[in-house]
Design brief:
Elements lengths: L2 H18 L8 E2 L2 H13 L8 E5 L3 E3 L34 E3 L1 E4 L2 E4 H7 L5 H23 L22 H8 L4 E2 L9 E3 L9 H12 L2 H4 L4 E5 L1 H13 L4 H13 L1 E2 L2 E4 L10 E5 L3 E6 L4 E7 L4 E14 L6 E3 L2 E3 L1
Parallel strand pairs: 2-13, 7-16, 8-17, 9-11
Antiparallel strand pairs: 1-14, 3-4, 5-15, 6-15, 9-12, 10-11, 12-16, 13-15, 14-15
């Protein structure tokens, strides 16, 4: 590490210590709530997808989901003159399937001396360190949300490159907590949802999405303008390619471009495919039905210079949970095969 880099890095450490009210940022410390909140905001703002879901602080490490949406009608009338009591209805779903556990998640990052040396001469040195760490944490959260299936005591990135063993994500919650809202095959015993000209039930993705919206999503939500459909990258690309490739006359090209601009499938607005969303899956839900809870005062940090590896290590952990606020407000379609 060059001298100017050392000076800049020492300034970064001094700033972190001051912000968090600790004498030395090279000792493990708990990030103060005001700084933790700013970190969470920056993580959320690092991704267009994360901006559209809920990232919420909770006090307890485990508890009942907040139930941020309305799960049914609340309008009513009670004849109080007859001695009956008005009975307010719960906002949001409640019950055993709507619980959460914030699991410790380590976001340990290393930055090589050479990269720090390259950043040392720019005024935004500290911001570059912060942004490098924040951006990857945001991407990891998205990856876990769509691919996480278990909470392993000792994770293995080589065996689980999509962070499947870090935490239980939204899709796995649907599979285990609300299997009635998950479609895995269109014909019994096939193990796949077939879509295409030779398919028995669904000739195109529009038919599949429309049918699943009508059959698997609660009537209260299925016509909500906030409903979105996320298509796996392969499905999205194949749909757009076929529409463009099969229509060559000027009038057809104009019509196709108009359809692509509408960006709907089965009457549901298409959401841009987030990073690492399963290629053969479809998720239909309002985006604010997806949440990440983080526990207040659970973010811990330790900055360590590691000259034996020519790097600086940023050890950081947080307790967090991936929550579906209302399983009936969405559905998951998996194993989609275009035939």
């Amino acid at each position: 590490m060059k001298t100017i880099t050392r000076q800049q890095f020492n300034g970064y450490l001094a700033n972190q210590a001051q912000l968090n009210g600790v004498p030395n940022a090279t000792d493990q410390y708990t990030v103060v709530p005001s700084v933790q909140q700013k970190v969470e905001v920056r993580i959320q703002e690092s991704s267009e997808f994360l901006k559209k879901i809920n990232i919420i602080p909770v006090t307890d490490q485990k508890g009942e989901a907040l139930g941020l949406g309305i799960s049914g009608g609340i309008a009513s009338r009670t004849n109080t003159k007859a001695g009956k009591r008005r009975d307010p209805k719960n906002v949001g779903e409640v019950g055993l399937i709507y619980t959460y556990v914030c699991e410790q998640t380590n976001f340990d990052t290393a930055i090589n001396y050479s990269k720090l040396d390259a950043w040392a001469r720019v005024p935004e040195f500290q911001e570059k360190i912060r942004d490098a760490v924040v951006k990857q944490q945001g991407l990891d959260r998205i990856t876990i949300g769509f691919n996480g299936t278990e909470v392993a005591a000792d994770t293995d990135i080589e065996a689980n490159p999509l962070l499947q063993d870090v935490n239980i994500g939204w899709l796995e919650k649907w599979r285990t907590k609300a299997p009635e809202s998950v479609m895995t095959e269109s014909e019994v015993g096939t193990g796949q949802v077939s879509v295409g000209a030779s398919a028995e039930h669904y000739k195109n993705l529009d038919a599949l999405v429309k049918d699943c919206r009508n059959q698997l999503i609660d009537p209260i939500v299925r016509d909500d303008s906030a409903l979105r459909v996320i298509l796996g990258r392969d499905l999205h690309d194949s749909r757009d390619f076929n529409m463009v490739n099969d229509n060559n006359t000027p009038s057809e090209v104009i019509a196709v471009n108009s359809l692509l601009m509408l960006d709907k499938v089965g009457g549901v607005q298409i959401e841009s495919t987030p990073p690492n969303f399963p290629a053969d899956a479809i998720l239909i839900t309002p985006l604010d039905n997806l949440s990440i809870y983080y526990q207040d005062e659970s973010r811990r940090r330790h900055h360590k210079d590691e000259p034996e590896y020519d790097r600086v290590a940023f050890y950081e952990s947080d307790n967090e949970a991936y929550v579906v606020e209302d399983y009936k407000a969405g559905c998951l379609i998996e194993n989609v095969v275009l035939v």
